[in-house]
Task: inverse folding
DNA sequence: TTGCTTATGAGAAGCATTTGCAACTAGGTT
DNA sequence: AACCTAGTTGCAAATGCTTCTCATAAGCAA
């Protein structure tokens, strides 16, 4: 409530981005710190307004963009829809999306990342960012398809 | 050779989608068949207009959407910007995007795909689709061996 | 050719996101 | 504490991409 504590994680994060600490930004950052899911801008705004009803849409977008640019947030664009955000201070991970529930699980594979670097290297590139998303459905106990999947055309 | 009479690949593709063969759709599909890159709707429209200047933006979007829905085209949303399209009948591949030029290179890694399946399996999931994109910048140092692929594309 | 259905063009509408601008404020100065 | 000024904010208008509305124009089977 009262932001008198200088041990305020929220303010710290904003300052680390080289931004002025405002009530709006604190509310927005707090939302991200407390979110377990990956909310989009609209959801962030709605949740932030619970602590500060005066926050505008423009500020939400601007703040999210600033924090992403400063590397304190990450944004994802699953399915090509609205961008979804999450705090960046967690270990890197990729996403497995449950197509039926929309639920997102996080995973990491050092091996896959190593191969990605190798591939980029073969082409003479350096990876700045990557995106790996597995769109999945819960597997049945019984194997349904003996053959490989993959969209091999005729 | 301009005899678009009977054995027309373009018309076939449209018919296979269960759509009526129109001049506009032929022009649009021809663009995709001839494109080596991954054009977005605007580019598809511009190119299609070279063979049929009357094609509208609405028709382009509608046709692209129909063909994607029918599985004859694939669409990608790199960076969360405009959707980019490609013919679906080519072997599966992932994308390496040059952040400076926007150029897209295709690659395949059986090993990465194997690991993806293993990961999904660990969570009890079956992969329906996946997306792997490497956003890169040209490396300063000389590449280890750039001209080694060839299996990607035709 | 007829006739029914789908496709098309032009522009309006819809979303998510960005921006112009005048008023406002955080945070360092005096 | 009053002061300054660059950074911020809210509002609304503007974007960029994509979809929809609707009257007109084909496609294609009979």
Result:
């Amino acid at each position: 409530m009262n932001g008198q504590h200088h041990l305020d994680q929220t303010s710290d994060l904003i300052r680390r981005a080289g931004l002025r600490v405002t009530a709006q930004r604190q509310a927005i950052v707090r939302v991200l710190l407390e979110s377990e899911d990956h909310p989009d801008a609209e959801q962030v705004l709605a949740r932030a307004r619970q602590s500060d009803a005066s926050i505008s849409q423009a500020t939400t977008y601007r703040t999210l963009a600033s924090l992403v640019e400063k590397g304190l947030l990450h944004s994802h664009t699953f399915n090509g829809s609205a961008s979804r955000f999450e705090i960046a201070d967690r270990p890197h991970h990729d996403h497995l999306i449950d197509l039926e529930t929309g639920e997102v699980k996080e995973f990491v594979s050092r091996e896959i990342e190593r191969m990605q670097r190798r591939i980029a290297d073969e082409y003479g590139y350096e990876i700045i960012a990557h995106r790996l998303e597995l769109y999945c459905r819960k597997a049945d106990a019984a194997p349904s398809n003996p053959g490989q999947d993959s969209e091999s055309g005729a």
Observations:
- The mean pLDDT of chain A is 84.
- Chain A touches chain B through 42 residues (CB under 8 Å).
- The two ends of chain A are 63 Å apart (CA to CA).
- Helices of chain A lie at 9-16, 23-34, 41-48, 57-69, 110-122.
